[in-house]
Amino acid sequence: MVFTDQINHKFKLDSVPKRIISLVPSQTELLFDLGLDEAVVGITKFCIHPQSWFNTKKRVGGTKNLNLSKIVDLKPDFILANKEENTKDQIEALQELYPVYTSDISNLEESIKMIKAVGKITDRTKESEMITTEINHQFNRLASIELINYSALYLIWREPYMSVNQNTFINDMMKRCGFQNVITADMDYPSVTKNQISDLKPDLIFLSSEPYPFKENHISELQIVSPSSKIVLVDGEYFSWYGSRLRQAVDYFIGLMEKMP
Known about the structure:
Blueprint (H helix, E strand, L loop, with lengths): L1 E3 L5 E3 L7 E3 L2 H9 L6 E4 L7 H6 L1 E2 L8 H6 L4 E5 L5 H8 L4 E4 L4 H14 L3 H19 L6 E8 L4 E2 L5 H8 L2 E3 L12 H7 L3 E5 L8 H9 L4 E5 L1 H5 L5 H13 L3
Parallel strand pairs: 3-4, 3-6, 4-5, 6-7, 8-10, 8-11, 11-12
Antiparallel strand pairs: 1-2, 8-9
């Protein structure tokens, strides 16, 4: 059967994959929730969920610096990747050797399509439908809530500070919660200076737990930059992981929204 991924790459599979490598943490967790424990033979060093896989599965490097020789040694018959999290040259090199599905996700709808596609490829259609049904149910619940709109700055990095623009999956999650992203730059993940943050005066500044691990001590330095902003540490997995973790995201978002002034 011929499949087309989210970057319009076509690949052929003659049978259900039995040796899968996942190159993206949130999609690794999806494979676990689809019940593919025996089929997954390789993950990245950033695939921390589930803990049991992180402890036992072979690791093939980082998302941006894959160890291609380790991938070859594992003899995969299917690889699950992502346009943003993996590098173009390494994805193209793998496409020459293996069936590769590369996701490209900037909103909830695209994540739902990816989950269904992976379910079909791995012969887990029933399980993927259960996951997407629950995700849709949860986000419909969120959509029924009357939102209070806040302007918000979401920071993913420090030195330099980096944020997210309105084309990103994180922005889509923010918008669904009534958090209006103050960043309008063309670049998906632009740098922002302290002066720019001061001028933006967002109601909220979110400090993500990933990829930079913001902690309590980073709040005070930003409070000086933007005294009127409420600064909140947030779990980046709920804002940026576009796999099965989305089933728990809405409960997290509602809890976060209840803490707002």
